[in-house]
Amino acid sequence: MTVNAGEQSKNAYDFSFKTISGEPLPFSEFRGKLVMVVNTASECGFTGQYKNLQTVWSRYRDKGFVVLGVPSNDFGNQEPGEEAQIKSFCEVNFDVDFPLTSKVHVTGDDAHPFYRWASDEMGLLAKPRWNFHKYLVGTNGQIVDWFSTPTSPTSEKIIKTIEEHLGKSSSNNR
Is 1 part of a structural domain of the chain? Predict the structure, then answer.
């Protein structure tokens, strides 16, 4: 289900994307997992972060962590390609195998409902201002943190936050 503008949402599980191949991707598929949602672009100075996103995905995927790449052309027209081109670019250049969505808007009136909700939940400072902005969605579907574009996915700050939240979720599941 996709929440319409103006409706209140309780958590990320109320939203849905489409995969890069066009299949439905309800966020509820990630229920109980820690999810890093990242707006991506193939022609950005930060595009190298795909490598670091793949690194953290590979390191923590078996512990309940997901990276969700969300291609967007909102900033500097740096994601001009179609979905098949984006997918190929990510696989060929960065060996990406984490989930990618179809291309969406992450800012403005046409922003995907998840991004409108996330901005409302976290406030103006947490709104994406460029490509590779990161929201961290907790195992309960609430946003637990956000990281600006320059913060590398493999930075000490992000790794510590991931490990703290994965530790909380594993102790809650005992």
Answer: no
The DSSP output letter for 141 is S
Counted domains in the chain: 1
Query: Taking the C-alpha atoms of 46, 82, 134 and 150 in order, what is their torsion angle to the nearest 10 degrees?
Result: 10
The answer to whether 94 touches 54, Cβ cutoff 8 Å, is: yes
Judge whether 65 lies within some domain.
Answer: yes
For the whole prediction, is pTM greater than 0.70? yes
Q: Running along the chain, 174 residues long, what does each successive block of 10 average in pLDDT?
A: 51 97 97 98 96 98 98 96 96 97 96 94 87 97 96 98 84 46
Instruction: Give φ, ψ of 62 to 5 degrees.
Output: -80, 0
User: In angstroms, rounded to a whole number, what is the distance separating the alpha carbons of residues 130 and 76?
Assistant: 9
Spatial CA neighbour of 157 closest among 167, 145, 166: 145
Residues labelled catalytic: 44
Residue 31: domain span: 12-172
What DSSP designation does 81 have? S
In a domain, 6, yes or no: no
Residue 100 lies in a domain: yes
